[in-house]
Each structure stands twice: as C-alpha cells, then as structure tokens.
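=== RUN LOG ===
request id: a7f3
mode: sequence -> structure
chains: 1
length: 217
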Amino acid sequence: MRNQFEADLKTLQEMIIELAEKTKKAVIKSMSAFRTENIELALEVIDEDERINKLEKEVNELILVIITRQQPVAVDLRRNLTAIKIAHDLERVADYAVNIAKSTIRIRSRQENLPLENIEKMHELGLDMLTKASEAYRTEDLQAAKEIGEIDDIVDELYGTTVRTLMSSIANSPEHVSNIMQMAFICRYLERIADYATNIAENIYYLVKGKHYLLNQ
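=== RESULT ===
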C-alpha cells in the first residue's frame, strides 16, 4: 500500500509540474501575441485553455483517490492539500493568460510613448516567478520560495508606476482611451499572475513547515 501511495504522490507531482509548464507557455504565448499584435496567436491561447482546465481536473481527481484510499495524515495530507491549492493557482494564472489574449484582440492600434518596456519587465519577472515556483515545489526549496515573494514586491512597484503612466496618457490621447484601458488591464493581469506565483510559494512554505506564511506583506 505504501509503495502505491508513493507512486501516486510521484504521479501527482509530475502532473503539477506539467500543469505549471503548460500555464507558463500560455503566458508566454499571450504576451507574444500582444507584442506582435498577432490575433491568431491570441486565439490559440484562448482555445488551448481547455487543456489546462482538464489537467487541473485530473489533478483533483487523483488527489481525491489518494485521500480516499490512503487517508493520509501530517505531511502526507499537507502534500495533497498543497497540490489542490497549487493546481488552482496555476489554473487561475492560465485564465489571466487568456485575459491578456482577449485584451490583445480588443486593442485596435498601438500608440507611441506608452510604457511597453515596463509591461515587458513585468512579464519577464512573472515568468521567473513561475519558473522558481515550479522548481521550489519539485525540490521543496524554501529559499527559492522566499525569492518569489521578493520579486513580487518589484512587480507591484512596476504595476503602480505603469498604470499611473497609462492613466495620465489618457488626457493627451482621449481618442485612444479604449486601447489604453486594455493595456492597463494587461498590467493588472500580469500583476495578478505574480500574486498567484506568490500564493504557490506560500503553499510551499505550508507544505514544508506546516504553517502559513505571508511572503508579500
């Protein structure tokens, strides 16, 4: 029974890591669509989201089987509870990738003098956080989890600065308010992606330590 339990936990970990990779690819693809104004690529992100939803469902079904069959306690139970939360957080990140794709489709034309460099930086930092989160989950590395919380502070600062710049540009380009608002939404989606990566890091702390820690406060 224990051998089966260990095999199930290994499968669960592999599924979570696969979910993390698919989610990260969705974010990369959505931002590539935004960067290149590629509507077809944006539509691919939207269409492929169902695969991520399906994988999250499969993760939850496996966890239910493990808990029902093995009735785990202590760290083994935390491992399963953490997996549920991380799978949910990853699925939400994928949803924000879809939102970025939808905003990309709604943007009609790109204006000059908008803070695209900041948006790209938020994207790069968010990807770094997701990569660290996946690795920290695989290795139960608390140092990597801690670094995610520190990066989130940088993303928050970039978000505030970038949105203020976007909002102030409306006065000079009122005819482009719709497009500017969509870019502000994209900033918000990237900020939320970073928040969910931080949630994953906090859940890794819970898995290892058995206590809840807030890394971005």
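=== NOTES ===
Residues 113 and 169 are 9 Å apart (CA to CA).
The helical segments are 2-36, 39-70, 74-106, 116-139, 142-172, 177-209.
=== END ===
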